[in-house]
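Same chain as my last thread, 548 residues:
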Amino acid sequence: MANLSKQKRQRMLEFLHTIREEHKDDDNVLIAIGEIESALNEKKYGLVWERHEEDVDIQMRDNIPVFTEVPEREICAIPGDTYNFLLEGDNLHSLRLLEKTHEGKIDVIYIDPPYNLGGDFVYNDSYVGKDDGFRHSKWLSFMAVRLKIAYKLLSEKGVIFISINDAEYAGLKLLCDDLFSELNYQATFIWKCRQRADSRNINMISSDHEYILVYSKSDKFTLLGRTKDISKYKNPDNDPRGPWASIDLSGLADASHRPNLHFDIVDPNTGNIYPPNPNRGWSKSRDTIARMIAEDRILWPSSPKGRPREKKFLKDLQSDKTGFSSVLESEDVGFTTDGTRALINVLGSRAFSFPKSVKLLKTIIGQFPDKSCTVLDFFAGSGSTAQAVLELNKSDLGHRKFILCTNNENDICSCVTYPRIQTIITGRRPDKTVYENNIPANLKYYRTDFVSKDSEDVSEMLLAHIQEMIQLEHGVKIDNSTYRIIMSDAEADELEQNWTQYDEISALYISKNVLLTTSQNELFSNVEIHIIPDNYFKFEMQEVGEAW
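reply #2:
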């Protein structure tokens, strides 16, 4: 069957070619023809939207983003260990800089972007309301530029998890199919994030779930699968059927939604009657409960005010390992309220709305096989990802590192994200009370800053921020003792002359413009040598004519 649209486009393109030949000396006409051709050749199937340019992107036309360290916010709880990073500023600026230090090096990305519900999404310093006719295309433009960089940052074995709800799920799925390839789509997890249905919904349909889209960088991606926790299976009564665990029989639906799960359970031995919780009901049907009673699989309470529970036997488990189900069970990942409780526990107050469940993030990040992986969250919010990484390391002796990017809108980075991480690492809350579950680690705090392209000496100003880039790429602290930068031949000569005073040096970061002598190469041979790469700011310096 002929593609009539394609044929029509081809006729128009041929006509434009004729016009180009007739006006080949008119630059304005040629530019206009080029723009028309580009529009005609744009993708005609798939996700298409009105493209928008952000203020933060326009800002980079005349300014070069850099990182500036905030030294007073450094945390060093494990001297000599590598560092985690908290990057304050617009995440697009941070991502542009991470391209220079971490392309192909990030193993796990988790993000919880704005859901575009109307009033929760800031675009060009203004909230995008529900009545904005370009609401969806603005959101897609906003996400596309960031996800393109995310794809570059992922390692070949890497994976990205993206939380989203119904408002933008369909568009996001198509966007990710395009950017990451539909072949690299792995799953959509469904998370029941709320414990009970919202009865206020006028249509009696409550949206109590969210999604997590999962894409890999390549076919080298793998997850561990889940090992079932069998530690709770004991046999205190010497049951001949073997070890068993006590399981709650409560459900999650009120009587108006699941009336068949609301009935009395009667103990045949005592005649005691156990009514259901009116807000939750039972998790099993009447027939299933009757069969469990007949098979002596119900644990009866010693008091009439107690609750019957299931006696679940270890032998009924198929194996100790399962695949990772696309439906996330609340007992494994918790609810949104668990995220709130975790934040209150750390900071002593509810300082952020709807923080993600730490149990959820530990579950999905913990599926990545490498316990020394690098985890990036560029919509960091309250810092749940940092807490999840630190708690995972504590539980399985891993050495994962995190990089968090967040803006400081409403002081979130300085008043929530950083204090939360600081409390977890040091064991001291901002109000000086003790947080007992502290996990020692190291952290550096950067802010995004800018160097104007009109500055008199752009290269000199950029060189002033090389240290931040080296520290970020290698996860170290340039302390001029263990780690040292050499930017000139004179600095190399000075180090050679005083080498005996630097017996703790572990690595040197040397400019490519420094030519080490034979004696220096021999002297420095027992330490790591890293050549400072051109790609930190080479393109920017070429752009302003200070490099070639």
